[in-house]
């Protein structure tokens, strides 16, 4: 039979008869007792203790003392066998005592009563307890406590001389023939089959006795079973069918086990071999067990192997396969008997499992529309189904839906989310700004929205602040707020931080008084600091400028806060604080003094606040004067104060006056003023009045301010040229005093930027994306102009302005994700802006590339690059440039003329020069950049023409190896940063030292020096614009003058005198060439005093003062002779001369003599003009022009009379200087010198 339970993992089929468990002895002991004493040890009566006077069965068994203790379980462990088990030991003990009355056989443990253990290992039955040696040992395996208790009942009931114990292991099994005992044996047990165990039989099994809990009879028979998996019928029904038909006898089963027991040779036959042997010998028996391949069982269906499809009729290729999900097994009959087919589930039914016998109906809320549904589909939202086994769902009426999927009732159909129930009859679309949950609930206004009933529906407006209109029923305002959009506090209430309006506090008036007191105290403190602590005046000025910058920056942030932003705390509160700049009356608690419910009234107060403040500064100044002892300000101070405020607050004032024009759309399609949601734009009377007031405010505030600033900026250069114009500077110092004089226009630029900043949130209120884009452009322009112009007078103010601009731009970038853009037009506009920006990026790159190519074609190319040490050969290089430009078309690169950016000088050598002339003087190699220029030319294969000056010589190899010791670490790092390693430098210098070189003596005559310079240019194959005959070098002058250029001093009309330093001589020769060219007069350079005696006394002398000139003996002789012969002298400072101290003059007198010292002292009384040959050529020309102007018309000059002193001559010459040359005189070109030094 088959048995199953819900919890059992398998099915059990039991044979009709099986073996019983119970005590057993070996066949050898049984046979021995029968043969010797004719005793049948397989019957329980044989062991009856009263019969042992006739026979003694004990002699055929071992004594309890013959067993090994390690094979037995100690008494101390017995109690644990029953603790925690399902055996109810108390019932067993009670039954045992009821049978035997043996109280001595029971021991009391800590937790229960259990069998008493004697001899350390045994429980002794009453029949042999007095003589333990007469007890027959009985061993129980596996510590089976229930078997132990059953054997105790048998021993007591039938007076059996048994000693019962637990076997601790299975070692005793191997010695059962040598040490015979009785043991419990549960068949089948393959280990014992070779012993041929004999069952000791007791009275037959009695169900009544067994149910009373007595175990004195034979044990019930436990049949053999076939165990199979519960799902075997589903997965392998043919195997189940075969197992159900199979059968074996008990003897056959024991034979199988016996064949698997270890033989005498220790060989274990393979179980598969034993099974195969049985199959070969019993073919006729088992072949009927195997079902036909086309006999399908429940859960299966016919499957055609050739077409790989399920079918409904048998064929030659038919087999059985498990039905797939979506089908069920259906039994059919044909001529071969019963089988089954797989049919698809009908609509309304489904089956998710394989091997199913039937399909299930779809429950309410679901459906299946097609054949063969695996699972039922859930009714979608908006439909329901209240029946079983349906193929479709019922749709809800129009405008209604279900809140869930799988609805099971028609009552589940309600208004859809996004609709609301109107007049309890229809569902209407939820207006924008309301939240409609659907169903039968009323709509709620969203936070930041205000809804009111209009024409039977809802009209939704945007609120000024989200906290003003909390989420709730339509028309809900924060406590204390009134009017449409909850934009105003009711009279007697003041705005709170949470958006509500609370009762006014007594300190509201005190706030204003405290503000006025702080203002006066601040003015007083500022004036006191400025007058009392003079050294702090500059700090106060800087702090004032910085404070103004912060105020302007905060107004820009306030303009950004005007955007439509979805802000959260604490950023929302921080930005709301800035609303004080736009004179938000709620922040000043003015509703505590008068009603602000009228939009016109509130706007009027905002417009009049500054005029009231202006009047207050006039009326209350006497009060401040009396309290703080402050003097009355002048008109200019009043004007500067209010001008500064108007310029600084231009952004805020513009935002205020343009408030009526900041109209934004609402969900209902109407436009309202952003600051006053209760004012409808362009259609309401209030808005018309506010617009008129706005126009007047625009004319009074931003327009007038900007016009005044623009006019003053235009007049600024004109005011500088007149004494009357300077009087305006005190009044307008607030505008121009903060900036550098050359950046006077930056105040106008700031006003324009601030005005545009205020216009962006006003004019583009409906386009948030465009607001951000335009604001970014304005801020970028502001930052770029700041970086390029660096306009502020104070360095700290420039850095502060740059930091504030960068911070404002960063803030703009951070608020971009917070923009509220729920409009398709705004999104489309944003996409267009992104596209334009995307296209602009590569366009800018292309434009830059085109400019680079254009610059490459238009960049000036040079024939010669003059590499020189500026302080050592700068004037000589100027002489070279003048000579080459006069006689050839050579384009010379001289850093003082052509260098614009020091970072490009190496590229100029590489790509724009034909050759490099290394003008080598003793200090050239000590200048790291001169060496870098020569190394770059060498490595770029640019010809290098060495020109040795003043006995120059290249250092030896050891000197080259230690060349870097003359440079600093910073200079070496600069070389490395340009890729010029020291090994490259040394290699270049070694090669250049081996080149054929030119030599020039800078103390030689101008003719010889020019000849060497022109010879240097011959390898370049230049086009000569003058004859090579250097004797006609003055042919550039007209008439007979040209032939007299190189005459002696007697022919000269102008003389030049200087010391004999080579660089000063070069400067003198440069001056000679330029003065001759400009005045068209012969100029002679005097080298020795003897030449002065040949010159005409009427000739003016240009005396060049240079470093260490007073130490030159020849120069001292010339100066003495000049004063002796009373020449007219004009002093020239070559920018190296330093006015000597009295100590230095004394030392000079000791060297040159008293007469020379007196001449030097008189010489120093003459005002000197500047000549800087090493600066730009245009400046040199201006300096020479000034010198020529001071010389005047030499034809009208008369010799100095004895009464004319050098000092009077200097005064006379100084009075003739025109104003336009004043700034140039005596002022070297610091910028060019600095550039060369840095390089």
Describe this structure in words.
With 1239 residues, the chain is an alpha/beta fold. Strands 7-9-8-10-4-11 form a six-stranded mixed sheet. Helix 33 (1062-1079) packs across helix 38. The chain is elongated. The two termini are 111 Å apart. Mean pLDDT is 78; it is low at 1-18, 262-268, 532-537, 1027-1046 and 1193-1239.
Keywords:
1239 residues; 6-stranded mixed β-sheet; 40 helices; disordered N terminus; transmembrane
Brief characterization of the structure:
The protein is α/β, with parallel strands linked by helices. Helices cover 40% and strands 14% of the residues.
Stretches where pLDDT is under 50 for at least 5 consecutive residues are 1-18, 262-268, 532-537, 1027-1046, 1193-1239
Beta-strand share of residues: 5-15%
Whole-Å distance between the termini? 111 Å
Strands of the largest sheet, in order across it? 7-9-8-10-4-11
Largest sheet: 6 strands, mixed
Count of helical regions: 40
Shape: elongated
Class per helix and strand makeup: alpha/beta
- Mean of all residue-level pLDDT scores: 78
CA radius of gyration is 61 Å
What's the count of strands? Answer: 48
Helix percentage: 40-55%
Question: What is the strand and helix layout of this fold?
Answer:
Blueprint: E1 2-3, E2 10-14, E3 19-20, E4 22-25, H1 27-37, H2 79-82, H3 89-100, E5 106-108, E6 113-115, E7 123-124, E8 136-140, H4 145-157, E9 162-166, E10 182-185, E11 198-199, H5 207-211, E12 221-222, E13 225-229, H6 232-235, H7 237-245, H8 250-259, H9 271-281, H10 283-286, E14 300-304, E15 309-310, E16 318-322, E17 327-334, E18 337-344, E19 349-350, E20 360-361, E21 366-367, E22 377-378, E23 383-384, E24 394-395, E25 400-402, E26 413-415, E27 419-422, E28 426-429, E29 434-435, E30 444-445, E31 449-454, E32 457-462, E33 481-482, E34 488-489, E35 493-495, E36 501-503, H11 507-532, H12 537-561, H13 571-577, H14 599-619, H15 621-628, H16 635-648, H17 650-657, E37 663-665, E38 671-673, H18 685-719, H19 723-726, H20 733-736, H21 746-763, H22 768-789, H23 795-815, H24 824-858, E39 862-867, H25 870-887, E40 892-893, H26 895-898, H27 905-912, E41 913-920, H28 928-939, E42 944-949, H29 957-961, H30 969-977, H31 982-993, E43 998-1000, H32 1006-1016, E44 1054-1057, H33 1062-1079, E45 1083-1086, H34 1089-1094, E46 1100-1105, ...
Parallel strand pairs: 8-9, 8-10, 39-40, 39-41, 41-42, 42-43, 44-45, 44-46, 46-47, 47-48
Antiparallel strand pairs: 1-2, 2-13, 3-12, 4-10, 4-11, 5-6, 7-9, 14-15, 14-16, 17-18, 19-20, 21-22, 23-24, 25-26, 27-28, 29-30, 31-32, 33-34, 35-36, 37-38
Helix pairs in contact: 3-4, 12-17, 12-21, 12-23, 14-18, 17-18, 17-21, 18-21, 21-22, 22-23, 22-24, 25-33, 28-31, 33-38, 35-37, 36-37
């Amino acid at each position: 039979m088959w048995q199953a339970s819900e919890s059992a993992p398998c099915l059990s089929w039991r044979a009709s008869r099986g073996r019983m468990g119970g005590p057993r002895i070996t066949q050898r002991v049984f046979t021995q007792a029968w043969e010797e004493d004719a005793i049948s040890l397989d019957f329980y009566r044989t062991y009856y203790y009263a019969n042992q006077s006739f026979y003694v069965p004990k002699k055929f068994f071992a004594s309890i003392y013959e067993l090994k203790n390690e094979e037995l379980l100690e008494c101390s462990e017995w109690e644990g066998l029953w603790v925690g088990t399902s055996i109810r030991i108390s019932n067993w003990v009670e039954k045992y005592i009821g049978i035997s009355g043996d109280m001595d056989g029971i021991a009391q443990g800590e937790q229960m009563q259990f069998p008493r253990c004697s001899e350390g290992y045994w429980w002794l039955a009453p029949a042999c307890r007095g003589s333990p040696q007469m007890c027959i040992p009985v061993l129980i395996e596996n510590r089976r406590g229930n078997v132990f208790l059953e054997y105790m009942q048998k021993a007591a009931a039938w007076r059996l001389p048994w000693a019962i114990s637990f076997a601790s292991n299975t070692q005793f099994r191997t010695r059962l023939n040598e040490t015979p005992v009785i043991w419990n044996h549960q068949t089948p047990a393959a280990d014992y089959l070779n012993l041929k165990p004999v069952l000791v039989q007791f009275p037959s099994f009695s169900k009544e006795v067994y149910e009373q809990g007595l175990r004195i009879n034979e044990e019930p028979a436990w049949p053999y079973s076939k165990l199979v998996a519960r799902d075997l019928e589903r997965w392998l029904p043919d195997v189940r069918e075969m197992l159900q038909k199979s059968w074996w006898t008990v003897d056959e089963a024991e034979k199988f086990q016996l064949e698997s027991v270890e033989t005498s040779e220790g060989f274990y036959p393979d179980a598969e071999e034993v099974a195969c042997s049985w199959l070969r010998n019993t073919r006729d028996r088992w072949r009927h067990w195997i079902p036909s391949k086309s006999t399908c069982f429940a859960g299966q269906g016919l499957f055609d192997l050739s077409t790989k499809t399920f079918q409904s009729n048998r064929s030659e290729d038919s087999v059985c396969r498990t039905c797939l999900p979506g089908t069920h097994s259906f039994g059919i009959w044909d001529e071969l008997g019963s089988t089954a087919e797989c049919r698809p589930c009908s609509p309304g039914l489904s089956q998710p499992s394989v091997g199913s016998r039937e399909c299930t109906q779809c429950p309410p809320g679901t459906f299946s529309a097609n054949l063969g549904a695996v699972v039922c589909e859930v009714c979608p939202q908006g439909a329901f189904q209240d029946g079983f086994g349906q193929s479709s769902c019922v749709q809800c009426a129009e405008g209604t839906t279900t809140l869930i999927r799988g609805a099971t009732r028609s009552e589940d159909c309600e208004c859809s989310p996004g609709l609301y129930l109107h007049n309890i009859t229809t569902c209407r679309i939820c207006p924008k700004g309301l939240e409609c949950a659907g169903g039968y609930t009323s709509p709620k206004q969203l936070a930041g929205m205000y809804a009111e009933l209009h024409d039977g529906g809802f009209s939704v407006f945007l609120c000024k602040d989200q906290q003003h209109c909390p989420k709730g029923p339509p028309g809900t305002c924060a406590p204390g707020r009134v009017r449409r959009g909850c934009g105003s506090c009711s009279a007697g209430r003041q705005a709170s931080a949470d958006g509500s309006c609370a009762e006014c506090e007594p300190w509201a008036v005190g706030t204003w008084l405290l503000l006025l007191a702080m203002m006066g105290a601040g003015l007083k403190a500022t004036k006191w600091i400025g007058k009392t602590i003079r050294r702090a005046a500059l700090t106060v000025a800087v702090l004032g400028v910085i404070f103004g910058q912060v105020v302007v920056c905060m107004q820009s942030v306030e303009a950004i806060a005007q955007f439509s932003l979805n802000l959260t705390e604490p950023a929302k509160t921080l930005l709301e604080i800035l609303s004080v700049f736009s004179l938000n009356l709620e922040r000043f608690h003015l509703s505590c003094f008068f009603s602000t419910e009228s939009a016109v009234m509130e706007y009027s107060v905002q417009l009049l606040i500054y005029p009231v403040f202006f009047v207050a500064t006039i009326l209350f100044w006497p009060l401040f004067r009396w309290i703080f002892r402050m003097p009355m300000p002048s008109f200019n101070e009043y004007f500067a104060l209010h001008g500064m405020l108007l310029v600084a607050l231009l952004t805020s004032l513009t935002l205020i006056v343009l408030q009526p024009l900041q109209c934004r759309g609402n969900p209902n399609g109407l436009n309202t003023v952003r600051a006053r949601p209760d004012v409808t734009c362009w259609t309401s009377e209030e808005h018309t009045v506010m617009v008129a007031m706005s126009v007047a405010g625009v004319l009074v505030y931003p327009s007038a301010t900007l016009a005044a600033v623009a006019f003053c900026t235009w007049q600024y250069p004109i005011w500088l040229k007149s004494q009357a114009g300077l009087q305006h500077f005190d009044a307008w110092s607030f505008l121009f005093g903060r900036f550098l004089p050359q950046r006077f226009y930056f105040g106008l630029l700031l006003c324009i930027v601030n005005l545009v900043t205020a216009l962006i949130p006003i004019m583009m209120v409906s386009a948030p994306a465009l607001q951000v884009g335009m604001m970014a452009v304005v801020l970028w322009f502001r930052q770029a102009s700041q970086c390029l112009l660096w306009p502020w007078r104070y360095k700290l103010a420039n850095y502060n302005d740059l930091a504030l601009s960068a911070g404002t731009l960063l803030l703009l970038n951070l608020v971009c994700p917070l923009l509220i853009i729920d409009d398709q037009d705004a999104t489309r506009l944003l996409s267009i802006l992104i596209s334009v920006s995307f296209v602009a990026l590569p366009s800018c790159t292309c434009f830059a590339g085109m400019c680079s190519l254009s610059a490459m074609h238009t960049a000036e190319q040079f024939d010669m690059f003059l590499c020189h040490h500026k302080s050592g050969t700068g004037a000589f290089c100027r002489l070279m440039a003048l000579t080459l430009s006069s006689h050839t078309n050579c384009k010379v690169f001289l850093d003082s003329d052509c260098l614009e950016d020091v970072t490009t000088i190496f590229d100029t050598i590489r790509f724009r020069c034909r050759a490099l002339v290394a003008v080598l003087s003793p200090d050239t190699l000590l200048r790291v950049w001169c060496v870098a220029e020569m190394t770059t030319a060498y490595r770029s294969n640019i010809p290098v023409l060495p020109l040795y000056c003043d006995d120059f010589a290249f250092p030896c190899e050891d000197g080259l190896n230690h060349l870097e010791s003359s440079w600093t670490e910073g200079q070496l790092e600069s070389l490395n940063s340009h890729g010029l390693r020291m090994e490259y430098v040394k290699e270049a210098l070694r090669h250049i030292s081996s080149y054929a070189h030119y030599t020039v003596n800078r103390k030689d005559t101008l003719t010889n020096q020019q000849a060497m310079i022109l010879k240097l240019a011959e390898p370049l194959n230049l086009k000569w614009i003058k004859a090579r005959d250097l004797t006609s070098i003055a042919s550039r002058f007209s008439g007979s003058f040209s032939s007299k250029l190189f005459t002696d001093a007697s022919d000269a009309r102008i003389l030049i005198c200087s010391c004999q330093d080579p660089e000063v001589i070069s400067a003198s020769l440069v001056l000679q060439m330029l003065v001759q060219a400009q005045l068209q007069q012969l100029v002679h350079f005097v080298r020795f005093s003897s030449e002065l005696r040949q010159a005409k006394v009427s000739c003016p002398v240009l005396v060049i003062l240079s470093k260490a000139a007073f130490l030159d003996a020849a120069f001292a002789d010339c100066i003495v002779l000049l004063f002796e012969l009373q020449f007219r002298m004009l002093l020239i400072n070559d920018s190296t001369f330093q006015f000597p101290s009295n100590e230095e003059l004394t030392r000079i007198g000791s060297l040159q003599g008293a007469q020379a010292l007196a001449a030097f002292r008189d010489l120093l009384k003459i005002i000197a003009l500047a000549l800087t040959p090493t600066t730009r050529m245009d400046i040199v020309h201006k300096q020479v022009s000034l010198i020529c102007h001071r010389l005047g018309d030499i034809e009208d000059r008369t010799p100095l009379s004895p009464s004319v002193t050098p000092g009077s001559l200097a005064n006379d010459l100084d009075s003739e200087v025109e104003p336009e040359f004043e700034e140039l005189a005596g002022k070297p070109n610091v910028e060019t010198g600095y550039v060369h030094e840095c390089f």
